[in-house]
């Protein structure tokens, strides 16, 4: 964690040994929606700017040349405007305990053609799945996510990242297609109805690109129910890590020496939270402390982790 973000940005684009990691709630990872490659990249770039103390109506400003540069074309205002326009019409369906949430990711997009920027507001209903995540969240590489070219590959990479520490993901074909908006449960309409078409056009491309460009190496094992492939079992190996992998005692030493906690508080934190979450919070605390807004670092850190 020796790479600093801009001082005026308390960013959840957390830096782990020079790598950039994005966080999102698991419910968002498994939501039902479809975005194009460009739209997903815009969403990732907005995610990279999210701050723990952001105002609900904050605008996140992106440079047009950065977005279009990912595709090697820096002069595509028309297609970009169409992408953001239709993105505000995209509906994410997120499963809740007692129903569903249907929400568009962005509530407004303001273009400044003189500056070559666009400023985006997140829909307030989506914010709980992106901010102040304490449990049930997914971490994945920001650069890797941007580099992946297939719109389905990006989503599958996120899903596999959710299960990477378990080294295994099992999902039904129907559930995966539903998440990718290739199957509509209400109308029973389905794209790629044949297994071979789905395997070749979506799955094999995703596996090849994920293994080539990301921190994961995956293998897929189809399982049949009768004559039909119904379940996909994915084995997941982490080929490089974004996060430091300290022992609990190493983390506890850091929590006591750098962040002023008692040994018993540090021990409870390492027992209650996983490493990515701890480092995310320590990064935020460090940036806040750089602004000299924290009077008592130990008390503040204890409050952040809810330990007394």
Automatic annotation (TrEMBL):
<dbReference type="InterPro" id="IPR000525">
    <property type="entry name" value="Initiator_Rep_WH1"/>
</dbReference>
<dbReference type="Pfam" id="PF01051">
    <property type="entry name" value="Rep3_N"/>
</dbReference>
<dbReference type="InterPro" id="IPR036390">
    <property type="entry name" value="WH_DNA-bd_sf"/>
</dbReference>
<comment type="similarity">
    <text>Belongs to the initiator RepB protein family.</text>
</comment>
<feature type="domain" description="Initiator Rep protein WH1">
    <location>
        <begin position="23"/>
        <end position="161"/>
    </location>
</feature>
<dbReference type="InterPro" id="IPR036388">
    <property type="entry name" value="WH-like_DNA-bd_sf"/>
</dbReference>
<dbReference type="Pfam" id="PF21205">
    <property type="entry name" value="Rep3_C"/>
</dbReference>
<protein>
    <submittedName>
        <fullName>Replication initiation protein</fullName>
    </submittedName>
</protein>
């Amino acid at each position: 964690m020796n790479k600093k973000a801009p001082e005026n940005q308390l960013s959840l684009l957390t830096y782990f040994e020079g790598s950039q990691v994005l966080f999102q709630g698991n419910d968002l990872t498994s939501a039902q929606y479809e975005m194009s490659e460009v739209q997903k990249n815009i969403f990732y770039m907005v995610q990279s700017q999210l701050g723990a103390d952001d105002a609900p109506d904050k605008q996140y400003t992106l440079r047009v040349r950065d977005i279009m540069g990912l595709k090697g074309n820096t002069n595509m205002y028309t297609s970009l405007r169409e992408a953001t326009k239709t993105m505000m019409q995209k509906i994410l369906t997120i499963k809740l305990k007692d129903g569903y949430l249907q929400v568009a990711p962005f509530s407004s997009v303001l273009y400044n053609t003189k500056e070559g920027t666009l400023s985006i507001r997140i829909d307030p209903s989506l914010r709980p799945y992106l901010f102040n995540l304490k449990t049930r969240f997914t971490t994945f590489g920001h650069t890797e996510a941007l580099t992946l070219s297939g719109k389905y590959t990006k989503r599958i990479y996120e899903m596999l990242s959710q299960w990477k520490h378990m080294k295994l993901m099992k999902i039904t074909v129907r559930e995966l297609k539903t998440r990718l908006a290739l199957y509509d449960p209400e109308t029973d309409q389905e794209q790629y109805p044949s297994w071979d078409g789905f395997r070749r056009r979506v799955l094999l491309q995703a596996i090849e690109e994920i293994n080539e460009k990301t921190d994961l190496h995956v293998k897929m094992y189809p399982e049949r129910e009768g004559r039909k492939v119904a379940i996909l079992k994915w084995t997941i190996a982490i080929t490089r890590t974004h996060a430091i992998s300290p022992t609990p005692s190493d983390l506890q030493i850091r929590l006591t020496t750098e962040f002023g906690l008692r040994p018993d508080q540090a021990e409870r934190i390492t027992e209650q939270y996983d490493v990515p979450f701890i480092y995310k919070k320590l990064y935020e605390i460090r940036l806040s402390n750089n602004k000299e807004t924290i009077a008592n670092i130990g008390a503040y850190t204890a409050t952040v982790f809810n330990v007394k």
